[in-house]
C-alpha cells in the first residue's frame, strides 16, 4: 500500500507525464489496474471533501489544526514558517534562559498524528481574493528561481490566522534601528545583539562615555513583553555577564520607556506597582509619560509629555515592543470587503469576516465586532412576545433569557457589574419587586446600559488559541449542525444560529519580573506576586507546551540555567 | 578589593580623564592613597610580566590558554569568535543530532577559573608585523563605526593559532554555490539548507525532475567530515524526515564524490572498505576517481578520471569538504619571513616560526619542518666522539642515543619500521653481531634511511590540542628552563636545547558511519567497527568536552534524539 499511496499523492501534485512514468515502473498490469480503481475511489472521496486553506501557523492556526478532524476536510496550510513557536517564552530566548529550538515544534510533527494528511507550504500569502475564493502565495525561497514561483490555491473555507506585525506608529528610524520581538529569529538576533554590546564595550580605544553608550539597553513599551525582556536582561547581566565581563559591570544601564503613567497597565494596579518597585530596587530606570519622537543608530529622542521637553538618550540596543500593526495582505483584504481604514479585520461572533461568509479570521489579525443588543431590542421583544400581547410575562421572558445571554456576551458582564444574577432581576418596579409583565419601553430601559460592557479582546496567545480551537470544533460539527443548529435563537429572522457564538474565557495572565519572581492575575480577582508565583509560572508554562519534546526541552533548559548559568557565546 | 581591582582594570584601559573622574568618586583620601600605592605595585608587577598575544580560540589556542599559567604573563587574545567550538561534532549539528549551543563554550568562561585575567577581543588579526613585534586587528562589528576601529597590539611572544580556511583548489563556482563545514555558523546554515530542500521539493508547480534535483545532496570529499555528514544526513532522512515528508521520500538521493580510489583514505584499508560497503547498503552513491571541474547554482560538473569524460549532476545542496587552505594573514606573514609560496607556516620542532624567534604557530596554520638527521650527521658524530678517535665506541654511542631519539623523532619511526629497538642494533657487522666501534661512514650508512620516515602531521584537532598544551607547558617553565635546559644536546653548537621538542602522540581516530555504527582506528594497529564502536565514540566524545556544561548538553542532546528524534523546524 505504501507504493500505491505514495503514487496517489504523487499523482495529485505532479503533471501527467511524470505520472505515466511512475506507473510505467510498476511491472504487474493487475497492480496498475488496482491502483487505478483505488485512485477513482480516492478521487470521489476528494470531491466530497471541502477544501480548507489555513493561512498562518501561530497560536490561532495551530489550535485550529490540532483540533480539526482532518479526515473530513482537504486541508492546505500556507505559512512562512514550517514550525509553531511558543511565543510567551520568546523573552526567555533573548537572553538564553531557554533555547530557541526548545520553544518550536514542526507543524508537520504536530499534525502528523491526526487521521489524515495536511499539506503545508512554506510561503507568504500575498493576496486574498474572496470574490473568486482564491489565495495567491509566494514561497519564501527568494533566491531560488524554480522554488519562488507564485502559486494560487482555491478554497471552500479560508481561515486567516496570519497574526499582526510590528507597529512603529510612524516613528522615524524605528524599523532601521530597533529590535522587535515577534518571531524566533528576532529573539536570536537580540541575544547576539546583547552579547555584541558587551564585546564592543571591551574593545580598546573606546572612551568611557562610548562604553557606557554601548551598554545602555533601552526598551520602548511597558507591556508584558517589554517588562519581561527588561527583567530577563537584568538577570542575565547580574547572574552571568558580570562574572565573565567584570570590568564593564558598572557601566551597564537598562531603561524602560513607557508612554502611559504605569507599566503593565493591562494588569491589576497592585501588579503594576509591585513591578515598578521591583525594577526600582533592581536599578532598572523606568521613564513614564514619555513619547518616542525618533530613533537613530546612536540616539533615541524622547518627549516628556508633562513638560513637552525633548531629550536624547544614546543607546547600545533598543527593543521596540509597543502594540501591533496590520499586515499588508490584511489591509488589502479590508479594502476589498469594505472594511478599509480599520486596524484589524472585523468578524462577527462566529469569527466570520464581515462581508464574506466562507472566510474566517482568528487571532491578532481580527477582532470581533460585537452586535449591540439595543439595535435588536425590538426584534427580541417581538420574538419573545409569543402571544403578541405587547407585554412580556415572566414565562415569556424566561424562554428567551438563555438565548439573549448566549447571543450577546456583553449581557453577562453587565449583570456582573450590576451584581445581579439574571435579566429578570433588572425588571423590577420602583420598590425592587419583580414586575409581572413588562412592555417594550421598560424592557428597553432595563437593558439600555448593557452595550457599554462591549470590550474588544486583547491580542494575546490565549485569545488566539481559544478562537482556533472554537473554530475547529464548529468545523467538525458543520454538517451535523446544519440540520440540528445548536446556537441561540435568531431574533430577527427566526430559527436558530448554526453554532453558539465564540465566548472568551480568561484564565489570567502572568508577568515574570526577574530574580525568580513573577506576578500573576488569576480569575476571580486573585492577584499574587513573588517567588511562589514564579513556580506557578514554571508549571503553567511547562504544561501548556505543544509537545512532550518541547516540554522536556524547556524544563531541561530551566534546570541547565540553574546549574550552569546562561551561555554567552556569540552564535 | 573589588572596587580597587575594578579600578585597576579601568585605569589600564581608560584614558587619564576618566581615571581621575573615577578616583574622584572615592570619598576617603586614605583609600585613594592606598589605591595609588597598590597601583604602583601592580604596575611593577605588570612591567615584569611578558606580553603574550594569542591569535585564535580554536583547538590550539584554547589548549594553550587552558594550560598556561596566566599569572606569569599578560595575556591578550584576538579571535573573531568569543567561544570555543568542539569541531568534531560539527557534522552532528548539521542535522540536529546535537544542538550548536551544546558544542560551544565561552572563552571567558573557560579561562575565568585561572589565577589571572585574560583580555579577549572579538576581532580578526589582519596583519602580523614580526619586525616591530606588533599585530594589527580589526573588530568584527563592521556596521558600528565606533566599534570597528582597527587597533594594534604589541607582543613579547606571539602565538598564531588562527587555523585554516576552506580550500577550493581554484574550482570555479565553489565559493558561491557550496556549503562548507568549518564553523558553527556553517553547520547551522547547512541544517536550514537541508530542511529548505525538502520544503522546496513539496511546493506546488514543480516537475518530478525538479523535485528530484532539490533532494539531491552532493558531498565533495571523502574524508572524515564528508563521510560523517553523509552518514548524518542519511540517518536524518531515514529516521525523521520520511515520517514528516512521506510524499517525497522516494526522491531523495545522496552522492559522495571522492577524487581518490577510496573514501576515508587516511584510515586503515579495512575501515575504508567497511564504510564503502555500509554506504552501498544505505543507498548512498559513492563516486570515486572523480574530479570536480566547476559548480553552478544548478549543476556540479565532474570529470571521470579514468575516461576523461565530463558529466553534469543537478543538485539541491553541496557540501564541499576537501582539504584546508591558507588564511590571507598567514600568506602575508609567510611572504615577510621568507616562506612565500608555502601552504602553511613552517616551524621548528619547538613550534617556533622559522625566521622569527618569539613567534610560535600551532594547529592547522602551521607544520613542523623536521630537521633531517643526515644534515647533522657529521656534527652528531663529532659530538659523540668524545676522545676524537675518529670512531665511536659502544659507550660513546650510548651517551648520545637518547639525545638523538629526542631531537629527531623520525628515528623512532624508522626503528619501528625495521623492527629493532635501538640505534645500536643498526650498527652490526655482516653476520649481524654488534660492532665494537664504528667510523663515520658506517654510522652514516646505518642511519641513511631514517629521514624517509619524516611525516608531516595531519590537520586535526588532536594535533592542534597537543601542540597548544605543549607550548603552554614550555611557557610555564620558560624562566626555569633558561637556567636548567631540559632539551636534548645541541649537536652543532654545543650545550642543550631549552626544551624537549614537540612530539605528537596519536590516540587513534573515529569515523561515525550512521545507523549507530562507527569505525575506529586505535593505537597499536587496532581496528574496530560497528555498534560497540559507536558507544566507544559516545564515551570518548563526551569525556573530551571542554566543560561540564557542554558535556551535560551533548549527552542530553543524544538522549533527546533517541526519544524525540531530530527537529526539522526551519530556524
Oligomer: homodimer
Provide the helix percentage of chain A. 25-40%
Query: How many strands in all of chain A?
Result: 25
Compute the CA-based radius of gyration of chain A: 28 Å
Reported for the largest beta sheet of chain A, the result is: 7 strands, mixed
As residue ranges, the low-confidence spans of chain A are 1-37
Mean pLDDT across all residues of chain A, rounded? 87
Q: What is the terminal separation of chain A in angstroms?
A: 45 Å
Shape of chain A: globular
Strand order of the largest sheet of chain A: 7-6-5-2-1-8-19
Number of helices of chain A: 20
Tell me the β content of chain A. Answer: 15-25%
| Helical/strand content category of chain A | alpha/beta
For the largest interface, the chains and their residue counts are:
A-B, 71 and 71 residues
Protein described:
Two copies of one chain form a homodimer. The first copy, chain A, has about 575 residues and is an alpha/beta fold. Chain A is built from 20 helices and 25 strands. In chain A, strands 7-6-5-2-1-8-19 form a seven-stranded mixed beta sheet. In chain A, strand 13 and strand 14 (about 300-305) form a beta hairpin. In chain A, about 40% of the residues are buried. At the A-B interface, helix 1, helix 2, strand 4, strand 5 and helix 8 of A face helix 1, strand 4, strand 5, helix 8 and helix 9 of B. Chains A, B: It is an enzyme of class 1 (oxidoreductase). Chains A, B: GO terms for molecular function: metal ion binding; NADH dehydrogenase (quinone) (non-electrogenic) activity. Chains A, B: Its main location: mitochondrion.
Amino acid at each position: 500500500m505504501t507504493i500505491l499511496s505514495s503514487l496517489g499523492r504523487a499523482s495529485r501534485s505532479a503533471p501527467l507525464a511524470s505520472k505515466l512514468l511512475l506507473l510505467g515502473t510498476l511491472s504487474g498490469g493487475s497492480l496498475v489496474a488496482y491502483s487505478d480503481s483505488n485512485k477513482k475511489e480516492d478521487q470521489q472521496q476528494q470531491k466530497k471533501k471541502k477544501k480548507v486553506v489555513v493561512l498562518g501557523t501561530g497560536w490561532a492556526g495551530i489550535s485550529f489544526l490540532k483540533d480539526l478532524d482532518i479526515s473530513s476536510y482537504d486541508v492546505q496550510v500556507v505559512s512562512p514558517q514550517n514550525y509553531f513557536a511558543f511565543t510567551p517564552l520568546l523573552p526567555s530566548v533573548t537572553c538564553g534562559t531557554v533555547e530557541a529550538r526548545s520553544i518550536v515544534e514542526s507543524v508537520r510533527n504536530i499534525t502528523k498524528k491526526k487521521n489524515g494528511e495536511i499539506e503545508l507550504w512554506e510561503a507568504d500569502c500575498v493576496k486574498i481574493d474572496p470574490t473568486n475564493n482564491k489565495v495567491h502565495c509566494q514561497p519564501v525561497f527568494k533566491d531560488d528561481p524554480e522554488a519562488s514561483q507564485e502559486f494560487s490555491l482555491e478554497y471552500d473555507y479560508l481561515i486567516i490566522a496570519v497574526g499582526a506585525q510590528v507597529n512603529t506608529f510612524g516613528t522615524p528610524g524605528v524599523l532601521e534601528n530597533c529590535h522587535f520581538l515577534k518571531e524566533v529569529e528576532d529573539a536570536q538576533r537580540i541575544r547576539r545583539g546583547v552579547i555584541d554590546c558587551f564585546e564592543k564595550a571591551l574593545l580598546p580605544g573606546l572612551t568611557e562615555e562610548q562604553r557606557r553608550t554601548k551598554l545602555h539597553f533601552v526598551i520602548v513599551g511597558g507591556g508584558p513583553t517589554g517588562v519581561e525582556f527588561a527583567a530577563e536582561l537584568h538577570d542575565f547581566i547580574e547572574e552571568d555577564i558580570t562574572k565573565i565581563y567584570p570590568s564593564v559591570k558598572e557601566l551597564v544601564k537598562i531603561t524602560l520607556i513607557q508612554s502611559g503613567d504605569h507599566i503593565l497597565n493591562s494588569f491589576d494596579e497592585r501588579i503594576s506597582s509591585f513591578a515598578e518597585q521591583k525594577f526600582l530596587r533592581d536599578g532598572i530606570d523606568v521613564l513614564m509619560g514619555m513619547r518616542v519622537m525618533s530613533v537613530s543608530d546612536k540616539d533615541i529622542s524622547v518627549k516628556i509629555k508633562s513638560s513637552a521637553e525633548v531629550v536624547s538618550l544614546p543607546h547600545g540596543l533598543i527593543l521596540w515592543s509597543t502594540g501591533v500593526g496590520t499586515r499588508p495582505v490584511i489591509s488589502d483584504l479590508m479594502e476589498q470587503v469594505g472594511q478599509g481604514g480599520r486596524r484589524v479585520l472585523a468578524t462577527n461572533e462566529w469569527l466570520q469576516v464581515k462581508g464574506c461568509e466562507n472566510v474566517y479570521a482568528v487571532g491578532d489579525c481580527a477582532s470581533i465586532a460585537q452586535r449591540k443588543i439595543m439595535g435588536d431590542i425590538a426584534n427580541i421583544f417581538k420574538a419573545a412576545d409569543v402571544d403578541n400581547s405587547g407585554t412580556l410575562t415572566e414565562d415569556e421572558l424566561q424562554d428567551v433569557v438563555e438565548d439573549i445571554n448566549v447571543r450577546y456576551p456583553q449581557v453577562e458582564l453587565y449583570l456582573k457589574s450590576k451584581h445581579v444574577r439574571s435579566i429578570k432581576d433588572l425588571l423590577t418596579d420602583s420598590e425592587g419587586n419583580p414586575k409581572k409583565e413588562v412592555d417594550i419601553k421598560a424592557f428597553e430601559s432595563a437593558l439600555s446600559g448593557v452595550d457599554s460592557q462591549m470590550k474588544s479582546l486583547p491580542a494575546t496567545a490565549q485569545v488566539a488559541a481559544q478562537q482556533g480551537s472554537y473554530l475547529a470544533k464548529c468545523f467538525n460539527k458543520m454538517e451535523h449542525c446544519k440540520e440540528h443548529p445548536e446556537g441561540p435563537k435568531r431574533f430577527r429572522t427566526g430559527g436558530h444560529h448554526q453554532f453558539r457564538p465564540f465566548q472568551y474565557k480568561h484564565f489570567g495572565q502572568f508577568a515574570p519580573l526577574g530574580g525568580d519572581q513573577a506576578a500573576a492575575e488569576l480569575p476571580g480577582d486573585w492577584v499574587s506576586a513573588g517567588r511562589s508565583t514564579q513556580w506557578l509560572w514554571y508549571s503553567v508554562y511547562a504544561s501548556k507546551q505543544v509537545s512532550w519534546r518541547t516540554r522536556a526541552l524547556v524544563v531541561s533548559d530551566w534546570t541547565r540555567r540553574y546549574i550552569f548559568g546562561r551561555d554567552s557565546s556569540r552564535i
